[in-house]
Amino acid sequence: MLRETRYYETRELTQKPLVKVDVPTALMLKLDGMEPQIVVAHLWIGEYGDVDRVDIERSAVLSEEGKEKLQQVFSMARFHPGEIDGVPVRTHMRIAVRLDRPDQPMQSEKRGTE
């Protein structure tokens, strides 16, 4: 029997959480007053796919206000929950996100094209 209060790591799951309602890209990738950077977020996803908690790893560049904004934005995401043998479970996920300044166009992932 699976413990109800435990958040399983993605490596323990037979089905990882899948994004159902994504965070609006404009909100997620651009925050006022910060430098472009990669930020690591920890998401605790409930057995119904809601984000129960968001923590942002310590960042030398991101302000407390920026961390709070990111936490609010990630809280809007919804997932198909992770599963173990077909049973939905609470899951802890660690993800990396690139943030850009609002005054700069987003950089393309394509290389070698101008």
Structure notes:
With 114 residues, the chain is α+β, with helices and mostly antiparallel strands. The protein has a single domain (8-99), classed as 2-Layer Sandwich (TolA/TonB C-terminal domain), CATH 3.30.2420. It is 15% helix and 34% strand. The strands form 3 sheets. It has a 4-stranded mixed sheet, covered by helices on one side.
Summed up, what is this model?
With 114 residues, this protein is α+β, with helices and mostly antiparallel strands.
Mean pLDDT: 79
Strand order of the largest sheet: 1-8-3-4
Overall strand count: 8
The name CATH uses for the topology is TolA/TonB C-terminal domain
Give the count of helical stretches.
2
SSE pattern, N- to C-terminal:
EEHEEHEEEE
Q: Percent helix among the residues?
A: 10-25%
Uncertain residue ranges = 106-114
CATH architecture: 2-Layer Sandwich
Please describe the biggest sheet, giving its number of strands, its sense, and whether it closes into a barrel: 4 strands, mixed
